[in-house]
Every structure is written in C-alpha cells, then in structure tokens.
Amino acid sequence: MSTVELALRVLIVDDEPPARNRLRDLLHDCSEQLALEVVGEAGNGQEALDKLMETPVDVVLLDIRMPQMGGIELAQHLNKLPKPVLNRVEEPALNLSKWPPAIIFTTAYDAYAIKAFELHAIDYLLKPIRLGRLFDALTRARAAVPVQTEVLRDLLPEPRKFLSIHERGKIHLVPIEQVLFLRAELKYITVRTAEREYLLEESLTALEKEFATRFVRVHRSCLVAKETIEGFEKGGEDNAESAGWMVKLKGLDEPLPISRRQQHIVKEFS
Amino acid sequence: MNKARSIKQNTLPDALPNFRNLGVTLRILLIGNGLALLLALLQANSWADVPLRMMQIATLLTPILLAGLLLLWALQPWLNRLAYWRGVLAVNVLAAVLTLSIYYFGGELYRPPGSADAWFDALRYLLFSVLVCAILLMYFRWRSQVLSRALHEARLQVLRARIRPHFLFNTINAVLGIVRTQPRQAEAALQDMADLFRMAMSDAQDLVPLRQEIELSKQYIALEQLRMGERLRVDWQIQDMPDDAVIPPLLLQPLLENAVYHGIEPLPQGGSITVALHRSGDELRLRVENPRASNGAAPHAGNKMALQNIRERLALLFDVEARYKVESGKDFYRVEITLPYMKEKTT
C-alpha cells in the first residue's frame, strides 16, 4: 500500500529549559525508528494553548507543575475548546490531527497524580524520562482516547485559574479573579468582567462547585464574586421570587437581584 | 562495629551550659529563686510569713547566686576545656566553697549570737547548695539533649527534602538534559548535588563556619538555576559579612529552598531572592526575602516543619539571644534572624 506515513507532530510543554532539552534529545533518538517532528515548545499552559491554536499537533508532552497554568488545567481547557480552524495550513491533507491532541503527562513525582493516571489509564512519563518509555508512549499515542474532563477534575482538585472562552475562532483566557459575576442565560453562561461580557458553555452548578471559595449564589441563575460585593440595597420588586434586596458589586453600575431563598447572604456579607 | 557507633553518635556530646549566655544566667536566677520560694512556703506558718522567710533565705542565697554567676562567667573558657563530668564536679565544688565562705564571712548576719549549732548550719547549707547546683546542671543537660534531638531532626528533614522527589528527580532530569550539549556543566551539577547530600548526611555539629553554609547555599541555588535558568536570581548582600563567624548548620539553605519553591517557582517571570547578612555589634543579622504570587497558596506542611525546626534550634541554642521574625506581605515574604556573633575557634 502506498499510504504515506505522516510524521507525528509533537509539542513539548515544560517550564524548565533542560527538561525540554532532554525531551528534544530523546525525540531525536526516537525519530530514527518513528516518523516524528517537534513542531514547537512552550514554557507554560498559556503559551502551549497559543501554539495549539496555530499549529496542528498530534501529541503534547505535558509537564504538570508549571507556573501560571499547569498541565492538568491546560488539558481541561483543551477538552472544552472546539477544534481550531487552522487556515495557516496550506495543504488540508496535512491538517488531519485529532482534537484534542493526545496528551502524555510528564512528572517528576507526585504519588497522588500517578495513582490517578494508573487508575484511568492515562499515559504519563516519569522524570527522568527513559527513551524506551517515551518510544512506547509515542507509538500508542495515535490510538489514544482523550482524557475525560471528570478525570482531569479528579487530578486537579483545586479550581482552574482561567476560564477559556472560544470566540470567533480565537481563545480568550479570562483570569478567574477578574470575573465579577456568572449568570446562566438559556444555553450559555454570561461571564462578566469589569471590561466586558463573554459567553461560556458550561454548567452553572459545576462552576459553583468548582469555585465555591470564590463565588456565592445570589439567585437561581447567578453567582457573584464574594470579594467584589460592595453592599446591599433595597430596590427591586417584592414578590414570591425576590424579597427586594439587590447586591451591588465593585466596578459594576447596575445592582443584581437576590432571590428570596438566598436572602440570608445579605446578613452574612454585610 | 565502628560503623554502628558512628551512626549512633549522631547526637551532641554532653557539655556544660554557656555561662556567658544571658538566657542561661536568667534561667539560673529564676530556678534558684524559685526553689527558694518553695522552701519559704514549706517553712512558713501562714501566708504573711512567706515573704519574711523568703527574705531570710534570700540574704544568703542572693550573694551566693550572684557571686557564683560572676565566677562562672569568668571561668567559662577554663570550664569549657574540661571533660563534662569534671566540669560538673568543678561547678559543684565551686558552689560548695562559695556557700561556705559566704556563710563564714557573713559573720553575725547568718549566725545570730546564741543561735543553734554553727556546724549543723554550715553542713545544711552546703548540702543544699550542692543539691540546687546539681538540679540546675541536670536541667541544662536535659535541655541540651532536647537540642541535639532537634538538630538530628533538622538533618533528617533536610535529607528528606533533598530526597524529596520533586527536587531529586527534576534535578537528575535536568542534568540528563544538558549532559550531551554541556557536559562540563553537568559535571559541576553532579558535584554540587554530592556536596548537598554529604552535608545532609554528615554527623551532627553544633556550629559550622558561616562561609561553609554560604557555599552550600550557593551550590543549592546553582542546581535550581540549572532548572529554572534566568527565572531564578539571587541578590547576595554579604560583602559585610564577618569572615570568621559560625552559625548552626543548615540555617540558611532551608530558608532558600522555601523561597524558591513557594516564591519563585510559581511566578512565570521568576524573581529575585535577597540574602542579606551583616554584623551589628555582637549580633549577626540574616535576612531572606522573596517575592511571591499574590494568589499563591499557603506554605505546605513540610516547609512549615522546616521553619519550625529552625526556630526551635535557635531557641535551644541561643535562648533569648536569638530572634526570629517572619513578615508576610501581599507580594513578598521575609524572614529575619538575629543571632549572637560567635567567632570560629582558631586551632
């Protein structure tokens, strides 16, 4: 048969230059027996996300502990994002990569994560990385199934640092501390920062659970950031739904209604 | 046989307390007077009688205590050279002689005319002073044993931290990463690593030259810089550091490790750790300061233990003469340690 074996496109993500060096050396050794190509390197999750949006990648070698955005949070975002349209690639045949790309985690040691990896059959490499293990992982990578979001949440019990928002083929990473409130609206969640609004496709209940320390529910459809609460005022209508209390947030002109059921937060926060 | 002994010997040898330390002096005064108060309580007939009895005891006790402390202060270098049990004997004899002579020269103050048997009194005081002296020495011995346990623990902790997988495996991985392109740097890194392990596994020492601790800390930083490159910078403000000073071992290095792990690593742009060391009169001042991410997590339990251990060792070793201060701001973390300036023994 004449199917041309396409080279495996690999992205290296690690914050330590010698660790990236090491992977490059080993990948070079692998390339004698396995068609592969290092298409890029990144020093943290954010940089990696940028790279992934502009280059087709088959496999990501992903360090777990990195500043700003670690490996597990990056994997979470990748799962939530739709496949980017890479108009830069001239030849559509080359743009065959699966989405999200296969992920192989690399870690020095983290008893907890390793146990979870084994439990969910996620591929990982222990540092110092061995050539043989890397080779095996790469050959398996094409067939790999993407890691499920719930599993990733198990791996990283702490909340994400960013919300990833997909907007007209671009990715916005909104730092969670900039978010004033989250409001469920029909199909989407409105994410409000001091500057503007974004639309997010997640469930409010899951967000409430993940960011419980940061946000408090004021209404059936609304979570507000605790530290931006400026005060409360009587205003809105008094009916079965609402007791007439409104919450005022820093950096936001219009107050938000508080439901009768959540009225107790007026006492707790004032 | 020899090997087994060297492992067991990982504790400090018994030694007399440093009689020139303010803390030791205060403790002697406090315990001496405390015992006197107890005695007064025992002798008294009523509450009102207690101060009177106390006064009576103090007229004899205070001159003995003060003269004793003065003598011990003066004899400290000589006592230091004696073997422990000879030292104990010497201190006891000193107390006995002092008690007898003060009793004798005190004349009528202690022997009101027509009072009871002078021999009996002399013997009784003698016995009592030797007893108090022995209690004090036992107390100090107990303290120093607690200290040696803390020191032992520090070593274990550092060893555990060295073997902490995060550090060990990342460093080995980093060395492997440069071994093909920069073999010389890789060699140096392995040597630094060996030195760090050696220090952590060496026998317990009371004090080490400050230079040595600085050297060790620099090796540690070099290893971390291998991994983190430009992101980790250290501003060594040590040009005014006294060259002959000694400090407890592994005092600076764990502080730096703390600063790297919690301060610099989570910052994408990295940052600069400041290490400032200078002498101020009789004191040595050490300051370690690092930036930290404003949303940084609290130090994890292991590091709190390391800091706790440093504090404990300082308290046991220098008592009130050492101070430890932590300042934790929104975007910085600062540890300041003040300890007595001690010179290296030139032998």
Description of the structure:
The complex is a heterodimer of chains A (270) and B (347). Chain A has 270 residues and is α/β, with parallel strands linked by helices. Chain A has 2 domains: 8-155, Response regulator (Rossmann fold), CATH 3.40.50; 162-269, Beta Barrel (OB fold (Dihydrolipoamide Acetyltransferase, E2P)), CATH 2.40.50. Chain A is 28% helix and 31% strand. In chain A, the strands form 4 sheets. Chain A has a 5-stranded parallel beta sheet with strand order 2-1-3-4-5, sandwiched between helices. A 5-stranded antiparallel beta sheet of chain A has the order 10-9-8-12-11, with no helix packed on it. In chain A, helix 3 (71-80) links the parallel strand 3 and strand 4 (102-107). In chain A, helix 2 (45-54) runs parallel beside helix 3 and helix 3 (71-80) packs antiparallel against helix 6. Chain A is elongated and about 75 Å long. The termini of chain A are far apart. With 347 residues, chain B is of the alpha+beta class. Chain B has 2 domains: 2-144, no CATH class; 163-343, Heat Shock Protein 90 (2-Layer Sandwich), CATH 3.30.565.10. Chain B is built from 10 helices and 8 strands. Chain B has helices spanning 2-8, 22-43, 49-81, 84-105, 118-162, 165-178, 183-201, 210-228, 252-264, 301-318, and strands at 208-209, 232-237, 245-247, 271-280, 283-291, 323-328, 332-340, 342-343. Chain B is elongated. The relative contact order of chain B is 0.09. Chains A and B meet through helix 1 of A and helix 6 and helix 8 of B.
